[in-house]
Specification:
Elements lengths: L1 E9 L5 H11 L3 E4 L2 H8 L9 H18 L7 E6 L5 H17 L1 E9 L2 H8 L15 H10 L10 E5 L5 H14 L1
């Protein structure tokens, strides 16, 4: 089986990208695909509420994942992907796209679910440096509350899934727990 393919799922502001960046320091020859690398170019053309947004977003995602799955030159790369998907039909389909790319690549798909206490999640969401004009990162606490109240995070389930409450953990500590999980399973 090929090198692992990590899928980090969690609510906006939970620390997915920060943990992914820490994982890159611990896992040799790893690269991060931040979900905003796919969202931002689409948002330049279509607002999220427009019907054309999701099909174009999926087309970008599928093109990237298909390229990774087929690439000979990146066979020695451990891919670390961040996302925020719920268990509804669209979220399940989106998350499954990553799993299928790992499978096509012959890689073990490892799902990491990050959670954080709501008040701390809100504090992080409002932190200086998050969002801004250059990206589509969520900074509206009201929208975060609605997401947390109405959506549950997608879970693949099974032995290759790790769920961590990172409220009291640093990104480095969380990354170490993920690396330990990968090596144990």
């Amino acid at each position: 089986m090929g090198l692992p393919f990590l899928y980090i799922n969690g609510y906006p502001g939970v620390g997915k990208l920060t943990v992914a960046q820490e994982l890159c320091k611990s896992i040799l020859n790893s690269k991060v695909i931040n979900n905003h690398c796919l969202i931002d170019p689409v948002a330049m053309v279509y607002d999220r509420a427009m019907t054309e947004h999701q099909p174009l977003h999926r087309a970008f995602r599928m093109a990237l994942l298909d390229s990774i799955a087929r690439s000979v030159e990146t066979r020695d790369v451990v891919w670390i992907c961040t996302d925020q998907q719920s268990s509804d039909v669209f979220g399940s389909m989106s998350a499954t796209d990553y799993y299928q790319a790992a499978s096509s690549r012959g890689s073990r798909s490892i799902s990491v679910i990050l959670t954080r206490e709501a008040q701390e999640n809100e504090r992080r969401l409002k932190a200086a440096g998050r969002g801004g004009l250059s990206n589509t990162k969520l900074t509206d606490v009201g929208i975060l509350r609605e997401i947390r109240d109405t959506e549950d995070l997608y879970h693949f389930g099974g032995k290759d899934e790790l769920e961590l409450d990172v409220t009291a953990k640093s990104a480095g500590e969380t990354a170490r727990l993920v690396v330990d999980f990968i090596s144990r399973t």
